[in-house]
Specification:
By secondary structure, the protein is mainly α. It has seven helices and no strands. It is rod-shaped, with a radius of gyration of 41 Å.
Length: about 325
Amino acid sequence: MSESTELVIVEPKNALTVFTAPDEIEAILLKVEQEVGSFVPDVSTKKGRDAIGSLGLKIAKTKTYLDGLGKDLVDEYKEIPKKIDANRKTVRDRLDALKAKTLKPREEWEAEQESIRLAKLAEADYEISLLMNEKFDRDVADAKLEAERIQKEHEERIAKEAAEKARLEAEATAQREREAALQREADLKAQAALAEANRIAAEKKAEQDRIDAAAKAEANRLSAAQQAEREKQEAIAAEKLKAKQEADRIQREAKQKEDARLAEEKRIADEAAARVANVEHKRAINQQSVADLVAAGITEECAVQCVKAIAKGQVSAIAITY
């Protein structure tokens, strides 16, 4: 529990469970209600009235904090927005009612004092109200800074997770390509080995044919032996040439496939790097756009919604240049 900001704190890793399990959000609201219920308002002193205002501000900050946490989950987990929005509405309604109930004693006292101040001490009460407004403005500014810090941390975490996911996907794709390349290389080697075996078999057959032809020529001692020998040698030469041409073809195909694989790996890696860089670039532009709108006087929540709508093309004649 935080004494300076919200009445409850939810660990980011537990946020999804809190907003999708009815018992979890009910337990949080009951805890807040019990703490507020244990508070005894005292409007008789300035300290007591300030305590009422401080508690009311904490309730408002708790509502903003839990509602914003649920809103982040809606953006991150599109498949469960109805459950989260239902719990966000419960948070807003219950805490708005609790805030109104908590501030009611002070508001009634202030109304009574206002009627008194119209008749008495108008100038002194006006100075006191200015002091109270300054304190409230400081509290609101502190709450805004804290909300900006939490939002920035959330956006940085989302961007880091997206970059890590893209990196892992690129590595997995590259690993699959490497394994496929190894398999293709093994297949090509097997084909080359088969071609070499065929070539050797052809040479052996040709040699055996030569031996047979020579034996036949020697036995017959005919002039036709010379012709047979020439034909045999031509057949051997033809078989050798055919085997060499087949081996050359297999090597060419292997090289072409390897070159294509390397080019594809480079393309995939370049596209993955470009996607990561584009995500980071767009996130930076969107954050700066939100900051510019806030600096122009628009509330941060409204600025975020405006930038999202423009980025999605939902606003006519307006676009973000990335």
